[in-house]
Protein 1
Amino acid sequence: MNLPHLHWKLGRSTACVLVVVVFFAAYTLQLFNWQIINGEAYEQEALSHRTDVVEIEAARGEILDREGNVLAGNHIVYEVIYNALYLEDSKRNETILQVVDLLEELGESWRDRLPIELDEEGNYRFMENKEDEIETLKSRDMLNLADYATADDCMRELARRYRYEGHSKEDTRTVLSVRYSMTRDQFSINDPYVFASGVSPETVGVFGEQSNRWKGIETRVNVDRYYGEEGSLAPHVVGVTGSMPTWFKEEQEEQNNLYNPEENIGGYKDSDVVGLNGAEYAFEAELRGQRGQQSVFSNEAGEVTTTATAIAPQEGRTVRLTLDADLQRVANWSLEKNIRANVNTGLKGDKKAHDCKAGAAVAIDISDFAVLAASSYPSYDLNLYMAGGQYQEDLLLDKDGLKALNDRALNGIYTPGSVFKPLVATAGLQEGIIGAGSPVYDCDGPGLTGVFKYADLELACTDKHGWASVYSAIAGSCNCYFCELGLRLGIDRLDAYAEYFGLGWKTGVELSEATGVMTSPSEYRERHSESGVDWTEGNTAQAAIGQSDNQFTPIQLATYCATLANGGRRYRTHFLSEVLDYTGKETIRRYEPELLYDAEIREDVQGVVRNAMIQTATSGTASSVFSDYPVTVACKTGTAETSGLRWEDGGTEEHISFICYAPAENPQIAIAVMLEHGSSGPFAMNVAKDMLDQYFGFYSWDKEGNRYNQSGDLVDDQGKVLKTKEDLDKEAAASAEPSADPEPAGEEDPEEEPSPTPEPTPTPAPERGSDIPDHIFTGGSPSSAPEEGEEGAPQPSASPTPAPDSPFYYGKKPGEDPEPTPSPEPASGGEESGESGGEGEEPA
């Protein structure tokens, strides 16, 4: 029997399907072979003869003062890092926990940026003042959780993501904090993770002994930021660095300047340390270096055989500021001294302040408007702040309520008071409203002071000045005169001249600054819209004596004073002197002065206002401090009301202000001082005088705050010699001599405890050597007017005699030893005499 033949005919589509099935089956089997059966062998083969690219970070440029003193520099530090080239992924979490435990055992801090902590009951909670980090943690780029997600929600997601579930909460938080930080830092072969920076050489030695315990855990030498010998010298000017915050990242994203390993290796990473404020932020583009790349070659065993630099890193540039460290130091000390002295004792008749706790002082070079000093009190120490801990936390939380982190010199805005009057006089003379001898108002009244009356407005003056000229009106600070002159000028012209002189306008400094307010009808209505108060001519009168809504920054007042001295020519105020290469040897660019406005004030107008301000120093409201000063000073005092109520009735006390420039005939330096709620007295003037003494060399201060005259004698605030230079030299020589009768070796004082034997110091890791440097690395070779002589107040220091045949002192000539002359007893009368009423009340 013949069986029928079956003829199978494959269709074209069926054949294609079979081919695809066979192909994928073979591919799947090969994948199984690669990854499961022989995975380790193939992984080792992949590591053999491998070339990796590692990025090299560049050192940040330094910040110097005008003389080259380091304000922010770099020094060598030791770091514990996790190198991805050698890590064992399966043991990563275990390694992290063990490394952190060892660091804590050695007393070292480790990088902990997770914004979640354990409370007293062992529950997870978000940390205070970590809103930006919490937002980043929940963001789409990280956990992608809702805004209302709790700390527990975040920890569960982190534990799931990093495969660390079922452990104690303490261990879980430790491991997840490091893993979270590694993710934020974009940890990779190109970018090792820094566990801890600034560890001790002893810690380096311990980790060297443990080098075979953990693959990928290494120690290395790096450079870190430090802030000179005096971290408290100019913290608000210098600023701080830190991890890149969200706002900074958004700025760089807008500029297409974020890191991209293929297109922009010089861009910003989340792990980058950046300038956050002050000069560190303002000059970030100059200070930041450009990272490089290094090729790392491995052999068949995965061991590094050689390295080669593919792209050399470029260090950041050095920025030299205009700041004078010596003048800044004196401004700091004098501010603190005078604020601490201006404390009311509660005794009857004591007119010192009840709440004067803060202030600012600014000095400007009149030749180009360079900032020589910008002091803000209270202040803080940058080195202690950057070390973190309780000191930093207290400042951030402002536990004492003094807002020490605020830069009052650039961002504090204050009602100026009578220091505004020279501008009004300038405007009146320039516009032809008055002449030098023109009387404008009879300053008289039924009481001890004159009273200005306009409609239903009554403003008390500082004294009875009668029919004053502009000279006596400025020297005696006559409110009646300037209220009337302000009305004749009108608010529009007052606003215009304020703009000419930079009041209510930013000065142009590179650092962050407040704009301030020059009052005007539109501004006034906007600020007082809720109360429904409208502008009246009474506001114009108030504005003319530095009241109403006028509020300026100390750096604006210093700029205004420099512009007065400069005949109405206002330059951009600046902190930058020049940009150098990293070594500080080659100049990249120098700052060029920039004229912002020329008010073209006539020379006769300049002369009248200057002489009136000189008269303020010699016989007016500042005479108790400056009447016999060896350099001619042009100045103006100010007292500004800050409340409609007296302090006794629940109000706040007056600000006291002072501006000056010197020498008056050939101006070099302009100074502005503001003391918050200083009430009255010579305190603001004292600060300016100390700064002038330092600038002209009449007195000098060492870093401990000791004061010396031109002969080198140690003196007190009144110029009285405490120790002669000869005595100081003898003391120095005696302290340098070795002891005359050293104790014989081996003998001990029976009364003293024997010194304990020091603990042995661990030897650093052999591959690093024990001679790693640990030194600084630079990269190369008024309701009442002020009282001037109150008991307990720091008296103005004695005024020295200048060197002969010179308008001011440039330094002693051979054989000459000028002695200081004592200041006269404080005079009474005038704005600062304590016999006057307030500078004005709010208009009815």
Protein 2
Amino acid sequence: MSDGERTPDGDASGRIARGAVGPGPGPGFGVEEVRRQWARVVADAADGIQVVIHAPHGVRAVLGPPTPDVLAAQGELPAFTMTAARQGLGNLVRAAAAGTPQLVLRYRRVYAQITHTATTTSGGGTAVPATRAMPGPDAPDVAPPPPAAPITPAASSGAGRRVAGFATALGEATTARRRAISFGPTALDEALGGGALPGRLVLVVGAPGAGAGLLAAGTVLSATLAPADDPDKSNAVLSCTPGRPRADIAARLTAAAAGVDHRRLRADTLTETERHAADAASARLAAGGLLLDDGADLTLDLLRETAADIAGLRLVAVDPLNHLLPGAAGVAGPDIRHGVAALRRLAADLDVPVVAVWETGVGEPPEIVAALGDADTVVHLTREGEQAFAIVAERDLGPVAQAALHADLAHVRFTDPAPASTAVAETGPAEVPSADSTEPLAPAPRERTEGRQDGLAAGAPATAPRPSTTPARAGARPTSAAPKAPAASKARRVVMDADEDPLPGAIAGAVAEELAAAEGDITAASEALARRAIPDVMELLRLSRAGSRYEHTWYPPLPELLRKRSKEESDAVWEARPKWRNRHLPPGDHEVTALDMNAAYLSALKAHLPIGPLEHRAGPDLDDFDGPRGRKRRRAGIYLVEPPTWEHDDLPNPLGDRDEPGPLWITDPTLRLLLRCASPAYGTLCEEPQILESWTAVATENLLERLRTALRDARDAAIAEGDDVTLDYVKQMYAKLVSTMGGSNYNREINRPDWMHIIRSQAFSNLWVKAFKAHRGGLAVVRVMGTDELHLTGGDWRTVFAEGRGVGDVKIKDTYILQTKDKS
């Protein structure tokens, strides 16, 4: 085919085919045609192929690789993410045709450009209105023109380079884990560093019948049932099961989500309760944007085009990859390597996790095994009965982790292994196991050490024991996670079997250890636990962060406003601590109930905490920034605001008892509370605060979530069993964690004053919200104090709050009669 020869507008399938670039203007492609194949067209443009795009009324522009002059001026040109550019492609074409180049970004660097046809250069710089020709169905692909000579960027502009500071790169890596998709079992997620990470291909390899498809289906379930990243936009999950009926896949996912027997679900023999659970699960799956493709004719190219056209895509799953490759029965190593590379590129281009299954055959040649290793992560799965084992291997690193799994075949899913039973034996001569016994030895009682603050157990390993795969003995009865205090006359020795989650066992083990050391003296054990609360909670924090990508002991540099101005003076951050009294109650006698908010600081651990270094920015609208695929990512930190006027005598000011006028530095929870007060949902109580400047970073609400959950569960169990020792121990841990994380001589392991201020402010914000809830419920708010004290009158407070000792409940602290006089 000559350069000047025109080709049909597409191949037999209607796709834009990759072909030659000629000097003729060519017919070009419409905006909608390019938009349907956006990811592939932009990738080809980045590789050097130029595409003419025409909009209505004869407007035309060229999509091609970035040129040196455009790169040099990129700071002054409009730039768009891949998703944003696809959505506004028509406007970008018109703007480019008018003379303003439009930049397409991928991973925050210039990936391609859209320019006027007269300004497109080829190779050495000659202007040509280049197009991408499309061969017919029988025409061979023609190689694109040779790339231009490498561009040497200027030292000041850094054109053509992707350079970032270490802290920025670390922040980008940690935010990826926040978007990871869980496989279901916690042990496997930890082995994978959080789950299936965006932009990466995870290949699950197993023999037929091993359950590799069920393991991959766990990510489909997690991604579908997870909350939407943006409440205003819907998410989508694409599950491709070529050759496997989608009705079977839907039934499996429903059974796994509802926890009902898969076979009885298919046979329609579920009980009424199980039927309701299955209906609820199927409704959630239907609402989660799950898309099923069971077409036997699916190919890698069709998969890429389908995925690129789905808005809000958060996961692509392929089960199995074998069916997508040519000649699946006798597929060769090069074909597998090509398929793996195509899926890796799909994951990177769409910035979503891609999870694929490969069914191994007997005696596969080494070249196939080597080709599978080209995936970013490979999970090798083996199974015997209900016991399964996964080995995780990273590309270029080999095996890096392993995880024991339980095959819950009745519910067609994998879970963590069931915890082994816990036995309690009387102190005395221990029975020595035989040489081939798998039962663990019981730890001997430790001598009591006064004032110890060296961890969870002196002389014990720093980490909890590894999970045991030994099945629990039949008939064994597990003891409670929070043991009650034994009698003083009989100190007991606790035999703790390994648990898949080390946190509950660590808490219960510490209590049992001190009770045994104190020979049942509850007061002495409580005092010992209070002394070790700080090192113990830091060890729990370390265990809760195992496998995380963000190292919580890495302390980024702090701005001056977070440093104490002197030994006597605090830093410049205002936490909005309330100390308010209603001075406008009607005259008369008022029966007041003082309520105590349970575990205020424990609840406040669920707050948006910044990770990475705080970045300074000036001006308003600094809360969010554009992330991959145009989504908004949450930032949090410290904000300098001009506070709004508060004119409500019957409600406390969200800023607390502050009398000084002028701007002040507040934390993220306080800012969020002010914004809610300014919203119609709260009755527009005030105007929005004016943000003057900020120190913020990408944030996560889940950094302390696992620790918070473990402490909450231990607290609930202790209350249920009347175990005051564990209850006080848990309170000491979370209270001292918050009070010392900002820098303390008692806690040298963490120094995050920004986290301390944010958590405290979150507690104060939670208290204000409860006061507002009571106000809306028809009660009069009398006083609001500290983190947990709310005084109410004017009705039955039980119509607004639940009474109890659980987290989220309230309890009566005091009742009294308040006499007010007529002030007129």
Protein 3
Amino acid sequence: MTEVGHTPYVPRLGIYRWRPLQPEESAQGFLFALAEMHRHDSPDWTAHCLGINQSRLAHGEPAELERFAGAVGQSLEQFAQWSVRCAEDGKRTLRGNEVTIQLHYLTRRLCPACIAESQHHRFWWDLRPITTCPRHQLCLIDTCVCGSKLKWRDPSLLHCDQGRFFANLPRLEADPAIMRADRYLLARFGCAESEPVAILDEMNFVETCNILERIGAADVGFSRKWRTARSLGVPVAKLQARGFEILADNRLDELLTRTYDEFIANGGRPEQGFSACYGWLFHWFNYRRRWKGYDRLAEAMLRHGAARFPIVPRAKLGTLLPEEHRKLSLKQAAARIGVSTAGMRSIGLALEIIKDEPTSGHAKSFPSDLVDRLARDMADALSLEEAMDRLGIARRVMVQLIENQTITPALDCRGQKNAYVFRRTDVDKLLTTLAASTPIFKRPAKGLVALSGLGRGRPASVAQGVRLILEGHLKVSQRKTKGAGLQALFVDPKEVLEAAVRSAEGDLLSFATAANKMRINSRGLRRMIDLGLLAGVPAGATELPADVAARFSREFIMMGEIRDRIGGSMATLRPQLERAGFPPDDKLARCLLAGYPRERMEAFLAEIETGEASLEMPDPARNAVIAEARQILKSARKPVETDDMIGLIRRKTNLGPSDQPAFFFTTMNEEKARFVFIVGAGWWLRSRPFLGRVFSVDEKPSYHDFVEEAVLEMIRTAKRPLSKEDIAAALRGRGLAIAAASEEVFLRKLTAKHRTKIARLVGLGYWDRMRPYGPALYNSKLYPTGIQTLDERITACVVQHLTETKSPVSRADLISMLARRGAFDAGEKSRSQISRALQKSGKVVWLPKLGYGLKGRRYR
């Protein structure tokens, strides 16, 4: 057909001619060509002339298509090849591809170059996703230069309303990226050749278009909100081109990684899984189970997610091989290692893989390579307790060995249950290294200590001793045939001290090493530092310069060193040295240490070692103190207090060579068979009875016990309750006194101490708890606490009296009755006291003009 000018009006003569159907020409395009050929004002008139419905023809109704083919002398197969077909379910297909929502029905588009080649309409111009002509590398045009839109109801297929020939319209060069995507889509319809894209080849045309738009939208950047071309303000073709480029170039994993990284950068956490890590993209694919048909895409996202967070079964994205799970859930990790989920959670918290916070709906993830390593480590592993038993040490020592890196745990879960896990080979290797070629003995030599026995009072701790051996400063002296771990390895304490001093860094000694070198305990050394007694050592120091420790050792000799040289016991050496005129240094005494100036003490110790001096107590002085003490106590009427005793003895003789009270105490304690000290009273001859009792050597009598026994006996044999005045007078009659500032306080404490033996009748005195007392109507069953108040006693007596008399009684008669019974002392406040007690009880009421009567009883 040649180009012809457009005539505004042509007489309508009906359909009298037509041409053959052109390649790629649809039924609707052929109808438009007929309208152009017969110069109709609109294809509507052409359809009217043929007796068909243009709308049904455009939508591919089978009956309408068949009617049109018969009317124009064409075969139905020719029309069906390039036209839309509508199935019974309402879906429309085009050359085997579903295009239900992918067609233009109102507007139309064209390629000027294609029109110039052949003046007919191509079916693929009606596909919404197609925006370019891959054959001519041009954009499809839907608007004339005059501004009018191309529509299906236009009067001409080839000209605009103003007569412009569409083949002469400006030709716009197409974007190569968009054209690449269009070429792939047109290949679905056999109109172009394109590269294969496996991830898209398994999808239908509609799914492919949707996937391309979504992948392109995801490439814009991470977002939690649903994204489309419209929401982004971007043409669909551009998003589809971006999506196709990513999928065709195998850059989907790169896109997912970028999306995941942006999610993490925005404060996300891996354990949130598919529900959040890919933003809206995953939810779009997963919307209403839309993964069906996207198998390769689902597999790609599944593999990508499996490398970053645990894949839970409900993801429904497919299956992975076990080695492809690079992140495991809490349950999966626990099953692979062989521990409980609670134990796996503790391991994860300790290794800071997971956080201890509520994460409802979020799976906690563990790297699969880390889980595999943990599984290997725990296959033949030892728990903390098992490792401690194997090494023969306590938990504190085990922790120190870990902290100084002597032994490295296979699993460090510090602060959690099952805190550490150790490899059995590591523990055995440590023991083998320490023992080396040490000789074995059934019993270790005297003076050696077990390696596990280092620590308190030793120059180094157990952990430090182990490090000294491993570093070559110290050797194990002997190994016992039986014993667990370090308990069977023995070292020389002197060698330990020398090794600790040699290994000191920068001439600084550890606290324990310095204390041992100075022959003092750690507590005393700490007090010396805090009191500023060591020049150049700041308060709170944990290390001491070696020269400070050496200077102290040259200046002072401590009790331990003295005992090592001359023997004796720590309990007796100090008083013996004091008797010899060597009191401890005052400054060291403030630190609870017993030390002496070395220069002066060395000369005295040399005399003792040569036999020129002795620490034994001089017999004449000792015998004089004993004789004088016996004389004083023999004539004493009561025990003599310590200060009085020392004063009386000093009137006659000195307290040994030093005349110090310590000499007196030492002498009296050594003479326990002759003298006894009664607590609360004083010294007494053991052979002389005191209050009818003679004390054995092992007995430690107390004066308070005598007073308590006397009081209990008086109460037990009394005929009436005893007041505190009665008890005090009775004690004085026996030569005893209450050893307390207040007699009342003493009796109350005594009652509380012996609550099962003493009852307190308020206002009367103290009574044997288990004995009834008739005048006060006291009975232990009625008063389980052992206390009868005055109000209780008045009420009980009045109720009994009213029950017996069966008539009201006046207040005066009640006072007289109570006084006669001895249950109440009549006085100025007797009336108010009785009234208050009876009113409080609720059992007795006042009857006007009659007196007191029982509540609820009627009197005439």
Protein 4
Amino acid sequence: MEFIQDQDFNPKKNLLVSSEDRNRIPSFVSFQFFRYPAFLISVWIIIGFFIQEYINLSLLMIIVLIGLGFFGQILLHKYSRWFCLASCLFWLMIAGFIHYLAYQIPIDAFRLVQGTKVTYQGTIQRINEKYYLSKIESFSGYRPVLLLKNPAQELDQFLFQRVEVTGLFRPYLACSNPGGINFQTYWRQKRIFGEIQVYKCHPIDNNTFWNNFLSSFERTRNALSNRWRMKLGEEYPYFAAMLWGEKNDLFQDSTALLQETGIYHTFCISGLHLTILGGILLFILQKIHLPKSLAVSLSIFFCLLYLFFCSIAPSAFRAFLMFALFLIAKQIGRNTLSIHFISIAFMVMFFLQPEIIFQPGCQLSFISTLAIILYSSQIQIFSQITKLLQWIANGILLSTAVTIFTLPLLILNRLSFSSLIWTSNLILIPIAQLSILVNFISILGSWIPHLTNVFSHLIRLLIRILIILSEWSQNNIPHLFWKFEAKNQQIFGWVFWILLLFLIDLLMVKKSKAILLKSMILFSLVLVIFGFSAQPQFQVWVLDVGQGLAMISLSDNQAICIDTGGVIRNYGNTGYTILLPFLKNYGIHQLQSVYLTHYHQDHTAGIQSLVEAYDISGIYGRFESELEGGIKTTSIEYPTVSKHHHPYQIEIIPISGFQENDQALVYRLSIQNFSCLVCGDIEEEGIHQLLKAGENIIRSEVIIIPHHGSYTTNLAQLIQQVRPSLAIISTGENRYGHPDQRTLKLLKELGIPYYRTDYHGAVGFHIQRKNWKVIVHGKNDFSKMDNE
């Protein structure tokens, strides 16, 4: 990107403060704010936004602090450190105010109507085959978005039209587990606050020009899509993803390959696409001798049309803003720093769509562009080497700079990293760039049949070459590929990042004492990372699987499972969406056994995913049975003590009753000084039989309250015999009133603290030599809509 190659951070150049002003500024004042005001304001906005996200200041407090910052700037208008601090406070609170408007106001409004029938007017949009209601008229300013579920009629006919939707509103479920996704937080960060179970939907006559404009774009894209789908065949998914960001199921099959070879970003609409398109247009318009101002205007206009064509992808919007600002600055004769372009682009996007701060793709787009800016302003390629070696060295150094800046974000967002990016930037990325160029030219000539035929063959050839070389790189070039969904991979990622920083610094420092000191610092940092990341050898977790039960015991890289959860709203089968991510997070390679309390779906549905992922030596239940998918269980008919899972011991107590819930197995899992009684869904008769087993058998430190916290007359007797120091209620959204208020009252009267998975998330126990401690994964999201 030529327009960001400048000397932004050279302290001897580009000062925005004149020599006269510099003499009037006290010597202790830093010049950074006055040199890079847009950049520092952007940083303050980001910090202020996350302060509000995690601290949740009241609206009154935010307004008071904004006033202090505003009047502080007026009173301290001369260049001073206090002026900078007042400005910092002002922009921190402006960001907090935007957060309050965009998130807290909709949250408060939707909390009042959850579980009720609602009617909203808004605009229908479709993203990744899902339908959403946006621009809801009941809200002003930052309008929220709602997902539309199970519509009784086809919604394609209403795309980009104003409609009135009636249905049942429900917030997203919030299951909080290690390695898993809290969907309520995930969708809230996108400003999608829940879903409407649609009863009816009908259009409103007052459709706007803007909606008609977007609708015409959608029709044009669909026409082009259908035309090129027939021409390209198997290569069409790559073409559509690369050109306008459409990712269907066929493309998703190749995602792993593209991620491992480090070229996945070329199939996402980004600055690369806008740079190529804008560069082509500007070059052609200048070659035909159009006036410079007209060429610039047309280039910006066509890039804006393309932005709408690809649904205004955040990374493309960022690139468009930077491209437009650069051309406008050049046109009016201003030599503006590139750091200001990216800062202004961020602020414009933030004030229009605050949710961009949470989007990993947008974060990576900004931070990688910042890396390129810094690299362009600091790194000088030796002029003594040939142009080919300069190009190779530039590609390697640029990849290194981007990696240093983006790797922490990849780790924190639990994405992936491949060391093939260094070779891909030299081999695969140029081919991808050529393919993008040909794609743009082919679209411009789509209505000329002969050109379409020629370009379709060329596109298919380039895509095939790209995929073949990617497969060859994956199979033949030794490389590192880390998926940061596992904790051990995250540790390797942080260590690699620190080593990379150290090596870069080592090349720049020649003093032996400095090298020795930095080596000691590096060694200390690595030790700190391993120290903080060290996990206890033995852990027991009761997972948050909604209205169901799943408990997993960990030992090194092995696990035992008692019940596997069920199928719940938003998450579907919790085996795929909760259990497997949890096991991957802890790097579990072997699942030894699965024990089932009984055969109801909310305790067994997740087993299908476990059987697909692991070779399980035994699946046990009360009776021999064949579960869904042909999974067979082994019966346990008599009291048994299983010692096959050292150091864990599992005591199994069969229960036989007339109710289905009482045809079950009760488990007492113990290790060292920790024990947990897992009661499944046994009811009054089952509890009566369990009490007969004897106090010595069922005595435990922790009890999982039977049947998701329901109440029976002999529950108090059971708790008194177990004598737990802690109780857990595994429950979620249900129509049965679980947990029963009488159960909660009983636990309070007996002085037994308890955790509820629907409020507190997954509950874990770290087993140490002499004691054990409770770890609550937590639902510390202030926007949680459940009524506590």
